[in-house]
Amino acid sequence: MYFDFKSILPKVIDNSYQGVKLSQYFFYCLTAMTLWRSQHHLLAADGGAQSIATIPLDSFSSGAASTIVGIFALWGLSQLLLAFIYLLVAARYKSLIPLMFVIAIAEYAGRFVVGSWKPVVTLGDAPGGLINLPLVLVCLVALLGSIYRRDSR
What we know:
By secondary structure, the protein is mainly alpha-helical. It has a domain of 103 residues. It contains 4 helices and 2 strands. The protein is elongated. The mean pLDDT is 95. Keywords: Membrane, Transmembrane, Transmembrane helix.
């Protein structure tokens, strides 16, 4: 039993997954969540800025509110591109699941750090802000599960 850190950047990229099944299923959930949030930021009238993140768009000038909604839509596009990569990995290149967990950890840790450094004024607790640190920890555990190997080297 050991952790195969080399599987984060596998020499062969194929549809084989060697880790713990629970990590694989969590990756599918992460993929679905990324798809949902990306489409919401792209398609919701307010980009989710007020309806989800509780940013008080009503108190801003129309130009400022439009700019924030536009930035949320651009963010949604970035998330959609990442979600498509996740989908591709889930469907065809499962050997890259450990690498995707490293990327997810970097994304959510980065959100936590940037959000602490440059906080966004909201009227309530935005779900995205609340979930960043816990998701880093869960993705770290999932990463370890995805590189865990039972057989001997």
